[in-house]
Design a protein that fits this description.
Blueprint: H1 8-26, H2 29-45, H3 56-74, H4 116-121, H5 123-134, H6 138-150, H7 154-161, H8 165-188
Helix pairs in contact: 1-2, 1-3, 2-3, 5-8, 6-8
């Protein structure tokens, strides 16, 4: 695989990114390592199926995404009295975004984002998006990625995180608000950010 599709340095960089992503989703470095190994083995075994229609990284991450979804669906949740919903950062008051009537505060009102199509096509946008995603509190980041990227349904996410559907909606709402604010500050208002 390395000689035909990527060189050793690219593979090392890709593997690090995969491991970081899998650790965020699975919450355990060993489970993440297992998922990454399975994804890379799957890519190696099926390299003939890689048609080059997408970037190699995109193809391997799609395999990893399925491995993570399988792991999350099959893993039985251990009951722990130490696991609590959120932390101080999770519960941070987002009231500064709104006035006393629940309307957007004047300096926090969402600004026009320009052409979404142009921004989505720009690779730099995705670097900024990844920075914003990594800046989310862990519980919010996991819930957002499980729901929006891995594609688990709400009940599966709730089971994995040990929260209720109502809590999930709150966590996802907070994650989206934080992502919106981060993207607005680092990309849409400031223009192209440097990473």
């Amino acid at each position: 695989m390395t000689s035909q599709l990527v060189d050793n340095e690219e593979l090392h960089t890709l593997r690090r990114s995969m491991h970081r992503f899998a650790t965020l989703q699975l919450g355990d470095t060993q489970w993440a390592e297992d998922a990454v190994q399975e994804a890379l083995m799957g890519a190696f075994k099926n390299q003939a199926a890689y048609a080059g229609k997408a970037a190699f990284k995109t193809w391997v991450f799609a395999i990893l995404k399925h491995k993570i979804a399988d792991a999350l669906r099959s893993r039985q949740r251990l009951v722990s009295t130490n696991v609590q919903m959120g932390d101080a950062d999770e519960e941070a008051d987002l009231g500064e975004l709104f006035d006393h009537r629940g309307m957007w505060a004047a300096d926090e009102h969402p600004a026009p984002w320009g052409s979404p199509t142009t921004a989505l096509e720009d690779k730099q946008f995705w670097k900024v998006f990844e920075l914003c995603l990594n800046g989310l509190p862990p519980q919010q980041g996991r819930a957002f990625m499980m729901r929006e990227y891995v594609g688990l349904d709400s009940s599966e996410v709730c089971t994995e995180l040990g929260i209720t559907t109502t809590n999930l909606h709150v966590v996802l709402h907070r994650a989206r608000l934080r992502l919106r604010e981060c993207l607005e500050n680092r990309w849409f208002i400031a223009g192209e950010a440097t990473c």
